[in-house]
Design the sequence.
C-alpha cells in the first residue's frame, strides 16, 4: 500500500495538539489562519514576495514528488565538512573542532535557528510515582514536570512533561532511551504491532526509558510561536530572522531532560539514547548534533530537515518545509531557500548535521518504499551517512563501510554510522531489536 506522507504527517501534527479530538473545527481553522499570517509576516520581514510550491506526496497527483532516482541528483556538489569556509582543509581532529563551530554557525543562522542566551531555567518536579509491571519486568514509573521560570514574562507559562520508567529491581544506574513522544488523545487506539513492544525489549535488556512530550513546551504549528518556550523568551513577540524554530526548541527540551538524568541516581547519564520518529526524528538528530552528552542517536524516518540530503530532488523538498505548514520547525531565514534562493545555495546540508554527531554512534532507520512511501527518501538519508563518513574516519571511527545502497533489511552496522531499511512503514518498531544489539556494543564497554 502506498501512503500519502503529507496526510500522515498532518495526522501526526493533529494528534500532537492538546485535546485535538475535542477541538472544534473553528479552533482548527484558527490555528491554520494564524500560522499563515505568521508565515506571511516572516516573508515580509525577509523581503520575499513569493515562494515556489512544494510537490505532493501523493504519487498519483499531477505535481507528485519525484521518485525517479535518475532525476534525483540535479546538484553537482555538496559542501565539504572537512573544508573551512576560507577554503583550507581540515587535517587533524583539533582542526575539526574549529570547523565544527563553523558548521554549527551556519545551521544556527540559516536552518534551525539560534537558542537565545536568556532562555530561563527549568526546575524538575515529580508529579507522581508508582510501581507497575511492564511485560515481566517490575518497574517504577515517575511522571515529571519541568517548570520553566517565567518571571520575566508571567503571562506565558511553560511546562515540560516527561515520564521515566526504570526497572524496580537493582540499585545501580541503568542506560536510558529518551524518546520524543506523541501526545495521543485519551481515546486514541494505536495500531497493533507484531512482536514484543519496544518498551519491553528495552526493559528486558536492563535499560530504562523516558518519554518527553515536545508539544508540552512548544506547539507544532506556526500559530504557537508566540507561546511555548519560544514565545516566552520573545515575550510574545514575533521571531527574528535567525531565531530558533520548533525543532531546535524540542531539542532544547531534550537537553533539559538530560540535565535531570544527571541528577537521577537510577539513570546512567553517560549511556543515554535520543530517539524519535518523523518530525521527532528530525528533532532527535538536531538534539544529538548540538548536545554531546547524548551517547547514541536512533533516528527514525527523519527525511527532509533531518538526515536526508536537502539538495536531492526526491520526495519531500525544501519548498514543502518552507511552507506555512512546516516553516515553524526552522529559523525564518530558511524560508528564503524556497523563494529567491534554492537548496543548492544552502551553506550546509544533512551530511554535516550527522558529522556534528561524530564520533558518537548514529543509527539511521527508515521503512520500506512500498509501505512507507518515497516521501522520506531512504537513499537521501543513506547518502548523508556516506558523506559524513570522512569526519568519523578523521576522528578514528568507522563509517558505513560502503557507498552502495544496501538491500532492504540488510543492516550496515559495523561502524559508528549505521543504517537499516526495514520492511515496515513509517515507524521504527521493526528496527528496535537490531538497534538494541547495535547499542549494546557501546553500552557494554
Sequence:
Amino acid at each position: 500500500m502506498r501512503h500519502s506522507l503529507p496526510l500522515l504527517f498532518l495526522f501526526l501534527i493533529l494528534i500532537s495538539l492538546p485535546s485535538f479530538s475535542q477541538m472544534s473545527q473553528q479552533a482548527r481553522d484558527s490555528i491554520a489562519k494564524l500560522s499563515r499570517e505568521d508565515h506571511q509576516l516572516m516573508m515580509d520581514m525577509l523581503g520575499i514576495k513569493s515562494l515556489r510550491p512544494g510537490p505532493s506526496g501523493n504519487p498519483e497527483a499531477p505535481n507528485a514528488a519525484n521518485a525517479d532516482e535518475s532525476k534525483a541528483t540535479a546538484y553537482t556538489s555538496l559542501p565539504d565538512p572537512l573544508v573551512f569556509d576560507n577554503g583550507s582543509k581540515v587535517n587533524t581532529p583539533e582542526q575539526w573542532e574549529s570547523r565544527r563551530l563553523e558548521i554549527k554557525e551556519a545551521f544556527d543562522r540559516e536552518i534551525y535557528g539560534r537558542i537565545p542566551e536568556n532562555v530561563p531555567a527549568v526546575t524538575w518536579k515529580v508529579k507522581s510515582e508508582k510501581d507497575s509491571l511492564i511485560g515481566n519486568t517490575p518497574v517504577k514509573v515517575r511522571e515529571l514536570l519541568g517548570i520553566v521560570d517565567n518571571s520575566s514574562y508571567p503571562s506565558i507559562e511553560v511546562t515540560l512533561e516527561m515520564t521515566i520508567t526504570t526497572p524496580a529491581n537493582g540499585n545501580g544506574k541503568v542506560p536510558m532511551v529518551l524518546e520524543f513522544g506523541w501526545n495521543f488523545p485519551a481515546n486514541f487506539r494505536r495500531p497493533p504491532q507484531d512482536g514484543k513492544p519496544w518498551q519491553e525489549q528495552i526493559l528486558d535488556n536492563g535499560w530504562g526509558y523516558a518519554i518527553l512530550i515536545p508539544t508540552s513546551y512548544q506547539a507544532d504549528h506556526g500559530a504557537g510561536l508566540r507561546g511555548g518556550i519560544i514565545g516566552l523568551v520573545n515575550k510574545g513577540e514575533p521571531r527574528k530572522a535567525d531565531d530558533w524554530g520548533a525543532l531546535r526548541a524540542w531539542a532544547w527540551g531534550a537537553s533539559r531532560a538530560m540535565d535531570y538524568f544527571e541528577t537521577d541516581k537510577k539513570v546512567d547519564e553517560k549511556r543515554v539514547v535520543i530517539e524519535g520518529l518523523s518530525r521527532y526524528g528530525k528533532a532527535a538528530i538536531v538534539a544529538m548534533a548540538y548536545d554531546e552528552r547524548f551517547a547514541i542517536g536512533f533516528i527514525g524516518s527523519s527525511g527532509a530537515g533531518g538526515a536526508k540530503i536537502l539538495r536531492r530532488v526526491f520526495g519531500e523538498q525544501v519548498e514543502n518545509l518552507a511552507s506555512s505548514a512546516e516553516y515553524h520547525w526552522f529559523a525564518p531565514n530558511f524560508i528564503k531557500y524556497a523563494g529567491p534562493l534554492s537548496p543548492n545555495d544552502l551553506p550546509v546540508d544533512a551530511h554535516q548535521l550527522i558529522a556534528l554527531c561524530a564520533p558518537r554512534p548514529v543509527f539511521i532507520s527508515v521503512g520500506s518504499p512500498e509501505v512507507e512511501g518515497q516521501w522520506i527518501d531512504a537513499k537521501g538519508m543513506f547518502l548523508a551517512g556516506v558523506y559524513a563518513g570522512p569526519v568519523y574516519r578523521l576522528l578514528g571511527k568507522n563509517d558505513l563501510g560502503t557507498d552502495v545502497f544496501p538491500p532492504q533489511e540488510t543492516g550496515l552496522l559495523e561502524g559508528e554510522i549505521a543504517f537499516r531499511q526495514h520492511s515496515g512503514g513509517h515507524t521504527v518498531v521493526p528496527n528496535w531489536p537490531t538497534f538494541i544489539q547495535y547499542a549494546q556494543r557501546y553500552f557494554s564497554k
About this structure: The chain is about 30% helix and 15% strand. Residues 1-21 have pLDDT under 50 and may be disordered. Residues 204 and 437 are 12 Å apart (CA to CA).
